[in-house]
Amino acid sequence: MLKLSLKPGEYIDIGENIRVVFSGGSANNIHLLVDAPREYNIVRSNSMKQKDKKEYYREQTISEEAKREIAGILMREKHAASEITERPAAKKAIYTVSHRR
Description:
Elements: E1 11-14, E2 18-25, E3 30-35, H1 45-49, H2 64-86
Antiparallel strand pairs: 1-2, 2-3
């Protein structure tokens, strides 16, 4: 087992896609942030001891059809937003006044 000392804000990388960040704590506990892919089941040790709970089942992924539909919606929204920014701005009239006598 590897023992590490970390300061708040420091992190540990595990492999290429898991990061554990130490965000602080107190005398009786620590605060960790775990950034990992959804494929990993990350639970606290006392959660694993409770055998009467239901098993963890990974969340189902959305269908390819739903992904295409979402991509279409996002593209339409992006296109609509770009049309708004491409509209010519209203021209401002600038008047100059000369004080010649």
